[in-house]
Design goal:
single chain; mainly beta; seven-stranded mixed sheet; 11 strands
């Protein structure tokens, strides 16, 4: 089993920044993929960015966040980050952390990001 805990969400003004964290614990195998997704009210869940374990290629971003968001991972801490800059009201959503490995998908509980003046 794998446990994921997100943190770092909150209320920010348009143009502001936030950094989300996703701490993973439990039985994590060497090769896995981690991702951030978001769910806004009335909208489909959207893949924001993903990153694979070492040697798995560069990160991927959705068109809506590319150039503003940066995904990264500290393998020593089993923690994934999402640095978000120039946030806009349309970025408002619950942000969810996902880990995919050989035995399935694991989800965090989500953290709310609200962009409003």
């Amino acid at each position: 089993q794998v446990q994921l805990v997100e943190s770092g969400g909150g209320l920010v003004q348009p143009g502001g920044s936030l950094r989300l964290s996703c701490a993973a614990s439990g039985r994590i195998v060497g090769f896995h993929t981690m991702a951030w997704l978001r769910q806004a009210p009335g909208k489909q869940r959207e893949l924001v960015a993903n990153i694979t374990s070492a040697g798995g290629g560069p990160p991927n971003y959705s068109d809506s966040v590319r150039g503003r968001f940066t995904i990264s991972k500290d393998n020593t801490k089993n923690t994934m980050y999402l640095q978000m800059a120039n946030l806009q009201p349309e970025d408002t959503a619950v942000y969810l952390c996902l880990l995919n490995q050989y035995d399935g998908n694991y989800w965090g509980q989500g953290t709310q990001v609200t962009v409003s003046s």
